[in-house]
Design goal:
The chain is about 75% helix and about 5% strand. The protein has about 240 residues and is mainly α. It folds into 2 domains: about 5-170, Helix Hairpins, CATH 1.10.287.1490; about 175-230, no CATH class. It binds zinc ion. Zinc ion (ZN) binds near residues 199, 202 and 228.
Amino acid sequence: MEERLNLLIQLQEIDGAIRARQEEKRKLPELLAALERKSEANKAELDSVREALETAQKSKRDRDRDLEEGAQKVEKLKSRTPDIKTNKEYTALLKEIETVEQENKTIEDDILKLMEKIDAAAAEIKAAEARSAQEAAEIDAERKQFEESMAKLESELAADGRARDEIASRIDAALLAKYHKRLVQQGGRVVVEARGESCSGCFMSIPPQIFVNVKKNTEIITCPNCQRILFFKEAIAPKTP
Ligand SMILES: [Zn+2]
């Protein structure tokens, strides 16, 4: 195999690996952001149940005060009894006491309901805290994994870069410049296999007289249609960088 062809194939392989790793690296911060959003959602959920507990506690304090006032009202009404002169007044007073007592009963029912709500909210907070702690541990583990992946990618990219420089240094400047120019134009595929007498870059047939030479892998031959550099696979065993 022609050495320049071999080097170009190696260069293209390593450039593909670099692109894939850079793409992976680009995705990592998005994963981290997703983790942070998850962590914030957990915190918001916890805040919301804590708020529900505080609201129920405040309502209960208000209703406790209402009940205290209601009880005082009943006492005050009852204290009027000795001053009652007529049966009619007495009936009216009893009626009034009954009304206030009825109201107090309603307040007591409210207080019971609020106590149930407070118990439920406290239990929910406990559960949410446990959930949140569990998820925080998972998020920490994922974050650690993220940092490791990032460090691994960085070191792989550094190694790729060194290997790439080494290969590129062995390719003559004009050919390297041509490769670089086409790398962008041809979507990362500058050197392509000639397969079944067709170019695997553009899928057009290669004229037989050109294909005969391509099969030899002894010179730089480009596809007459897409200008990609052609090689023939059966005849080569590319060195892995
Ligand atoms: Zn082609």
